[in-house]
Design brief:
Layout: E1 2-6, H1 9-21, E2 28-32, H2 39-49, E3 64-68, E4 72-77, H3 84-89, H4 92-97, E5 101-105, E6 119-125, E7 131-136
Parallel strand pairs: 2-5, 2-6, 4-5
Antiparallel strand pairs: 1-7, 3-4, 6-7
Helix pairs in contact: 1-2
């Protein structure tokens, strides 16, 4: 487990970029944090780190956004789901089988969908601009 202090949205994006740069396809990044903690900013950084040139936005109402390029990032927002069963209903296993990196916001709502090998990212608001970001299951340089 590694802890980082982010002092800005840019810092949060940079950390996401550093994490994602070396992630193999098929990796699941389970994200935890309150509303406005910076989960989507972290995913924006992941996209940059994976070499994707795309607009990253929260998929709160669509549930899934796909960002395609040489590598593939699938961005889930589980805020509106109440169980892992609903995630399986939208094709979770099909998404996993594609070999993309999957970033999952509001992972606490679908814990049963994970297999225990996911990277866990927890973002805690310390102030309006500062965040404590804890990463478990991956090393970041």
């Amino acid at each position: 487990m590694t802890e980082f202090i982010s002092r800005s949205e840019r810092d949060t994006e940079e950390l996401g970029s550093r994490l994602a740069a070396g992630l193999p396809g098929g990796t699941v990044v389970a994200m935890y944090g309150d509303l406005g903690a910076g989960k989507t900013a972290f995913v924006r950084g992941m996209a940059k780190g994976m070499g994707l040139d795309c607009r990253v936005s929260s998929p709160t109402f669509t549930i899934v956004n796909e960002y395609l390029g040489e590598r593939e990032l699938i961005h889930f927002d589980m805020y509106r789901l109440s169980s892992a069963e609903e995630l399986f209903d939208i094709g979770w296993e099909d998404y996993l089988s594609r070999g993309a990196v999957c970033a999952v916001e509001w992972s606490e709502n679908v814990q049963e969908a994970f297999f225990g090998d996911e990277i866990k990212v927890t973002i805690e608001k310390l102030s309006d601009t500062e965040r404590k970001i804890t990463i478990e299951g991956a090393e970041i340089c």
